């Protein structure tokens, strides 16, 4: 039986099929063995003593009395994977998104350029793209019967300012009146397109999300974790919990790191860390605090004999990067920087 493979072309979203050695993609295509998905983690819960209520299946139909009590699965993480026919690096790359976002952060950029998923596939890595609990294709719990906190919906202004696309007070409903940082590398014309992928955020889900990601690490085995923003602390915790599985942790602007006094740093000495920061961190005190707490962890790990690389992109001569570094106009340069670091620090 002849082996059948997929080729992902250099044009975003194009997948061609090769059979019997005949290529239907150009020379820059990515040869893929398998595309699939699964759920990791989760637990069974039972809901009791909630009143039945009327529900409408569709407009104009007679309401149906619904009993919301019963058994449910909750806490699971959704994972889409792409496995290469001939990966150049054996540990797959697990990509975990930030708060209120989904795995779409690493797919095609809002202005239509190739995202980091395709870059790292082209660099020879199998990629496992996750939607954390309550994000994207990972379901969420009933509110308020199970989840005590309500979902949080971020406004465009909050995203514009917190993600450092423009300074405080620079957002306007009319795109023509918005005032981004003069040196911003975010594709400003595609900001509204980016906001379409933002989802509600549940602050009470950290424990469930951590359990789901820990289950993912255990299921995949030896791996490299790449985290963004709120997933950063989850990645640090997963690395501490399973140092035999995690070959490296890449943290893109993490929302903090463990207090070194609470962590056995000896467990991490063999695991290289890469921490990357963008620009305009002085726009909000919360960024300064997160930067400082992460730096404390980085310095402590190095003093303990660990391997941690700290990169300030402005210090490298690249000004204007937003919080969404993987979407910025120079995202391909940062991806290449990460690939070079992986080549130097992760074997196999």
Average pLDDT across residues? 90
Structural class call reads: alpha/beta
The total count of helices amounts to 7
Please report the first level of CATH classification, the CATH class.
Alpha Beta
Q: Could you tell me the strand content as a percent range?
A: 25-35%
**Residue share in helix:** 10-25%
- The quaternary state of the protein chains shown equals single chain
Order of helices and strands: EEEEEEEHEHHHEHEEHEH
Whole-angstrom Rg: 21 Å
Major sheet: size, sense and barrel closure? 10 strands, mixed
- How far is the first residue's CA from the last residue's CA? 30 Å
Q: Rough shape?
A: globular
CATH architecture: 3-Layer(aba) Sandwich
Structure characterization notes:
This protein has 348 residues and is an alpha/beta fold. It contains seven helices and twelve strands. The protein has a single domain (35-345), classed as 3-Layer(aba) Sandwich (Rossmann fold). 23% of the residues lie in helices and 25% in strands. It has a ten-stranded mixed sheet with strand order 2-1-3-6-8-7-9-10-11-12, sandwiched between helices. The protein has a two-stranded antiparallel ribbon with strand order 4-5. Strand 4 and strand 5 (64-66) form a beta hairpin. The longest helix is centred in the C-terminal third of the chain and has 19 residues, at 285-303. The model is unreliable at 1-27 (pLDDT under 50). This is Esterase.
């Amino acid at each position: 039986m002849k082996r059948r493979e997929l080729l992902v072309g250099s044009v975003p979203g194009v997948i061609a099929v090769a059979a019997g050695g005949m290529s239907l993609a150009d020379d820059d295509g990515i040869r893929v063995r398998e595309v699939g998905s699964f759920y990791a983690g989760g637990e069974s819960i039972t809901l009791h003593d909630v009143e039945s209520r009327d529900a409408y299946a569709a407009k104009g139909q007679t309401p149906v009395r619904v009993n919301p009590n019963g058994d449910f699965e909750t806490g699971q993480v959704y994972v889409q994977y792409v496995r290469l026919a001939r990966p150049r690096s054996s540990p797959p790359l697990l990509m975990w998104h930030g708060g209120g976002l989904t795995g779409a952060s690493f797919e095609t950029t809002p202005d239509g350029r190739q995202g980091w998923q395709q870059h790292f596939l082209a660099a020879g890595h199998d990629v496992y793209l996750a939607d954390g609990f309550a994000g994207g294709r990972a379901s969420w719990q009933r509110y308020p019967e199970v989840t005590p906190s309500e979902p949080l919906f971020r406004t465009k202004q909050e995203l514009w300012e917190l993600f450092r696309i423009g300074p405080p007070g620079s957002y306007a409903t009319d795109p023509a009146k918005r005032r981004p940082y003069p040196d911003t590398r975010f594709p400003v014309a595609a900001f509204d397109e980016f906001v379409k992928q933002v989802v509600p955020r549940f602050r009470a889900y950290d424990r469930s999300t951590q359990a789901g990601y820990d289950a993912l690490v255990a299921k995949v085995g030896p791996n490299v974790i790449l985290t963004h923003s709120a997933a950063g602390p989850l990645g640090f915790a997963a690395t501490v919990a399973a140092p035999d599985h995690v070959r490296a942790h890449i943290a893109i602007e993490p929302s903090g790191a463990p207090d070194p006094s609470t962590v056995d740093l000896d467990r991490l000495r063999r695991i290289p860390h890469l921490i990357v920061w963008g620009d305009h961190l002085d726009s909000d005190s919360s960024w300064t605090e997160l930067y400082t707490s992460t730096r404390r962890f980085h310095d402590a790990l190095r003093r303990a004999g660990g391997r941690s690389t700290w990169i300030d992109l402005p210090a490298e001569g690249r000004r204007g990067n937003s919080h969404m570094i993987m979407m910025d106009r120079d995202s391909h340069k940062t991806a290449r920087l990460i690939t070079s670091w992986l080549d130097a620090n992760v074997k196999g």
